[in-house]
Amino acid sequence: MPRPILATIHPEALRHNLEQLRRAAGDSRVWAVVKANAYGHGSVEVTQALQQAGAKSVGVALVEEALLLRQSGVKNLDIFVFGLLGEAGAKACVDSRLTPVLSSWRDIQSLCDKLTAEAQFPVHVKFNTGMFRLGFDASDANRLAEFFRGQKKLRLTGLCTHLVSGDDFADSKGVSQTQIARFRAAVEPFEDLDLSHHILNSSALIQAEPPVAW
Length: 214
Prior knowledge:
It is globular, with a radius of gyration of 18 Å. It is built from 9 helices and 7 strands, in the order H-E-H-H-E-H-E-H-E-H-E-H-E-H-E-H. Helix content is 40%, strand content 14%. By secondary structure, it is α/β, with parallel strands linked by helices. It has a 7-stranded parallel beta sheet with strand order 1-2-3-4-5-6-7.
């Protein structure tokens, strides 16, 4: 028997929530994560509502999630893919103008194989600071910085990590602050590059004092 459960999603509530997070973020950009069908809320409908409210970027876990958005008419919006790519995923990112958040040398190579020598295809890089799901180790930072300076196929535009929770952001001795310290160390070799840094999830953001400092 189907479960007698109904979820009613109010687009105006989504827009209100986005505005509140924007206020908390100050001048920093807010990205809406719509992976897993927007956590069951309907990724296409949620993304369209957020785009109408002025959102410039969304994030998904899988390439196929991003392709669904593109095929549903979501065009003028940056879509970040946080999961691993593989050969087919790398091609899809290039063909559909998706921005991969790279976590492995294999995916870097897969993307490079699909691009011309001067492509300057925008990518972000993720570091693992404690989530242990995806991301380069901090020990890869120097090698990564040297790699991106030495080629033109890929254009590094951002660095990020993933907080385990974020609920303890205000605790100076909490896990979140430990991760932030690790992230700061990992991004030091990239200091001469003009890159965005993104790390705070919603629970951390609402505890931060604007202007947001990670």
